[in-house]
Amino acid sequence: MKKGFIYRLIYGKGKEKDFTLQNLPATRTKQFFFVFKNYFGKIFRVNLLAGLFVIPYLVWDFILTGYVARFMRGLPAEEQFSHLLRLSLLQYGTEIPMIMLAFLGLAGGFYIIRRLFWGAPVMILKDFGKGIRQSWKQYLALGFITGLFNFGASYFINFNLLTVSKEVEFIHVLAIFGIVLLTLICFVALVFALAQSSLYGMTFFGLVKNSFILTFKRLFRGLGIFLLSVLPVLAFRFMPWAFMQIIGGCLTLIIGIGFALCVQTAFCLKVFDEFINAKSYPKFVNLGLNSGVSFFEALNEEPAEEQDDEN
């Protein structure tokens, strides 16, 4: 029976082209374009699955942002400040469990995207679930910490904006700059943590420690990669018009997550090859590139018989 459009959209068309080592790109940067072009259908379907876990956060954040803006409109700064903690708890506090849920979707997404970069066989639904089962505890913990940090950073930025005065204006500007810089550094470390949790078996303390070590080894490049991966969608988030924020949310659910995961995975694999795999997992150095070994050789496995990607 002929499969319909919706079925093909979710499950794909079946077998996709195989590539020999000679066909593969030479660098992780070139590999990003290679993977995004040749596996766009899979990336799109991963984005749809991960997006299901992100929808509650996007909807709730959109509703609460509008509510807080309407509530604060027209109030003097002193009165706005009196409501700051309560409104911060209402918006950012209640978002914490939704951020944790979104991170579960990222667990499945990171797992599949990394396998695509490695040239490993992928069955979307099966591997998405496997990625969640493999790393769900650490991803939930990272989501909880991210939610708390989001609450604290948002509160202190609004605190400084509402209490700024000409006499101490420089101090408030410096404080806001420091919070933003710390947030960016922590998000780079978070990217390393998510990618490592999906790949290596580590304790949570070791995961966090190693992520910050890698962050400061590649700080400026990491900041650039993080901003590159999220700015195409995040730019809509800070626009004052509701319809632009809705467009940003739709882009996130359609391709924004997959794009970000691909950019971040390409960067993380390069850093892991240099600082982790070269010493501890030599067979995984340059895996997925034309200078590395095949995925099956690295795992000492025989290639499985090809199957249509209907899972």
Characteristics of this structure?
311 residues; mainly alpha; 11 helices; 0% strand; disordered C terminus
Q: How would you explain this protein's 3D organization?
A:
The chain is mostly helical and 311 residues long. The protein has one domain (24-296). Helices cover 76% and strands 0% of the residues. It contains 11 helices and no strands. The longest helix is centred in the middle third of the chain and has 40 residues, at 124-163. The model is unreliable at 305-311 (pLDDT under 50).
Number of domain units: 1
The amount of helix comes to over 70%
Strand % is under 5%
Average pLDDT number: 88
Query: N-to-C SSE series?
Result: HHHHHHHHHHH
Rough outline: elongated
Biggest beta sheet summary: none
Number of strands: 0
- End-to-end CA span: 18 Å
- Quickly count the helices: 11
Uncertain regions: pLDDT < 50 for 5+ in a row? 305-311
- Using only C-alpha atoms, the radius of gyration works out to 21 Å
Structural class assignment: mainly alpha
Secondary-structure topology with pairs:
Blueprint: H1 5-11, H2 28-38, H3 40-72, H4 77-93, H5 96-118, H6 124-163, H7 169-197, H8 204-217, H9 219-237, H10 242-280, H11 295-298
Helix pairs in contact: 2-10, 3-4, 3-5, 3-10, 4-6, 5-6, 5-10, 6-7, 7-8, 7-9, 7-10, 9-10
In brief:
The protein is an all-alpha fold. It has helices at residues 5-11, 28-38, 40-72, 77-93, 96-118, 124-163, 169-197, 204-217, 219-237, 242-280, 295-298. The protein has one domain.
